[in-house]
Amino acid sequence: MRASLPRSLLLVALAGAAQAASLAWPFAFGLAPGAPVWWLQLLSLGALAWQVDRCRAGGNWRRAAGLGWLFALCWLSGTFWWLFISMHTYGGLPAVLAVLAVAALAALLALYYAAACAAFVALAPASNALSAILFAALWLLAELARDQWFTGFPWGAGGYAQVDALGVFASSVGVFGVGWIATLVAYLMAAWLRQPGAALGLRPWGLLAALLPVAILVGLARHPWSTDGGTLGVTLLQGNIPQDEKFQGGSGIPVALQWYGERLQAARTPLVVAPETAIPLLPQQLPEGYWAALQQRFAQPGLRGPQAALIGIPLGSYEQGYTNSALGLAPGQTAPYRYDKHHLVPFGEFIPPLFRWFTEMMNIPLGDFNRGAVGQPSFTVHGQRLAPNICYEDLFGEELGARFGEAASAPTIFVNMSNIGWFGDSVAIDQHLQISRMRALEFERPMIRATNTGATVIIDYRGHVTRALPRYTRGLLVGEVQGRNGITPYAWWVSRLGLWPLWALGFLSVALALWQRWGAGRPVKSGLRRA
Fold first, then answer.
1. Are 138 and 255 in a shared domain?
2. Using one digit for the tens of pLDDT, what is the confidence trace for 400-450?
3. 227-247 pLDDT, tens per residue?
4. For 318-461, where are the E strands, in sequence order?
5. Residues labelled as active-site residues
6. Is there a single domain that holds both residue 263 and residue 408?
7. Domain assignment of residue 145, yes or no
8. Domain span including residue 257
């Protein structure tokens, strides 16, 4: 029996909100705050699959598109609602305009998923197994489009909710492959709940087509791809400079210069890391002797041997352009190591064409950076090859993967330097932490994170947080991190082919569904039919 439209709309809206919550539990009750909830993500996506599949009976692709769009709208706006804080609280944009901006972004990105659901109804074969493959493939293509088209903004991809449950597959297929597996499971779960007899009666070839890729991945996941590369002592600085004061000359700037300067001078570990724009001025704007003192400090070996520092600082000039950068200081250098951020934040770090009017409505300091290159060299410290990434650059695994073309020069440790203070004390901190954990799993590399307000942590190559500072406190996190050598399957293919293998998987799955549908010689009149 066809469900009423209001009931279907309510169900998919709630399911979309649940999908957002599954990425990092946003409440202080019920479940562990900030933790991913893998089963909730499967249930939410399964609920959407159930409702979209109902549209197949009448070939109602328009209704399917609407349901997919509403689900994604609630999911995405519920995921990155904290953009409101950066635009309104710190950017000065009127509240109404900030709400509309977040809603508009979510609504536009939701079109990818609307198209996926519409295409599913239009193309779905009678087979349960192939329908599951088609649904998962179309959802995968939507996720890839959101990641790569225009500026790319894949924050909140469904695979991050599976970092604990299905993260074992990340070293083979990456977060989008993990999301593909989860979507496949969610659809089959919906099939079983709606028609248990039909779902359990899958023909052997249909079951094989649906589960063989997963079985292969299970075998790959059991193989260790990296080896111990030795340990490195680190000190990670968390200044907790209030965001509304960070770039103010009478408050945040002198506090930042004093606190970070003192901690950098006093560090005793082989590596000390200060977060993104820890030094909130261009070098030529610093007090006389400030930068020279830091360079002199790390030019000479410390009491316990050579020491190095990675410091977040803008570089360049207002006249010729500037970059969001990390400078590495170490003994024996002819010039400091330099990393320039490549993947800039739209509106916050660069102005998209035709949108200068929008950015001029906000008060964002240093708002139009120049872009660095992809795959910049690592910073070598005590035999470890450190790969910096700034802010949300660790969201783009394919860009981090560009550094893994050669095993001998591949990074042994990732270093994330962030300032999530722009988004207040929100779930953005927890969501970003799960993103970093997924990158660690994909490449079997540890990730150390130095941030202004949190989460300042050490993540091992298995994706486990081994040490952490309390958030919104000023302090130092001192510990050891184990570097890793070796190349995972994901690192191998993404460094050479980017995400094209996943695009190919999606389109080949669609082609398989079309072949089965045309070969059957008859239209599909109802959903979840047979294998």
1. no
2. 999 999 999 999 999 999 999 889 899 999 999 999 999 999 999 999 999
3. 999 999 999 999 999 887 888
4. 321-329, 337-340, 379-381, 384-390, 413-418, 447-451, 457-459
5. 276, 341, 391
6. yes
7. yes
8. 230-486
